[in-house]
Amino acid sequence: MKNHHTTDLKAIAMNAMRKYGFEPLFPNSVVSEVASIPVKMLSDVKENTKDLRMLLWSSIDNYDSMDLDQIEFAARGQMGRYR
After folding, report:
1. What is the mean pLDDT of residues 8-17?
2. CA–CA dist 81, 65 (Å, integer)
3. What pTM, to 2 d.p., does this model score?
4. DSSP letter assigned to residue 1
């Protein structure tokens, strides 16, 4: 059996963000505020909207964009590979 070296993409991304002056994690106050959003507000999205919260994604759309049409994500695939 071969040793497969696994790469921690999350750690690499967090280190890169900090290196260039970004803070990769939201402050606890922001997390609390988002958690307090009523469920009804979250259910008012359009029918064909995809929930991508479980993915580690990023977007190059403007901050006020209503359609995240320029996004990408990375996911671990088979045998330690990423896609």
Report:
1. 89
2. 32
3. 0.40
4. -
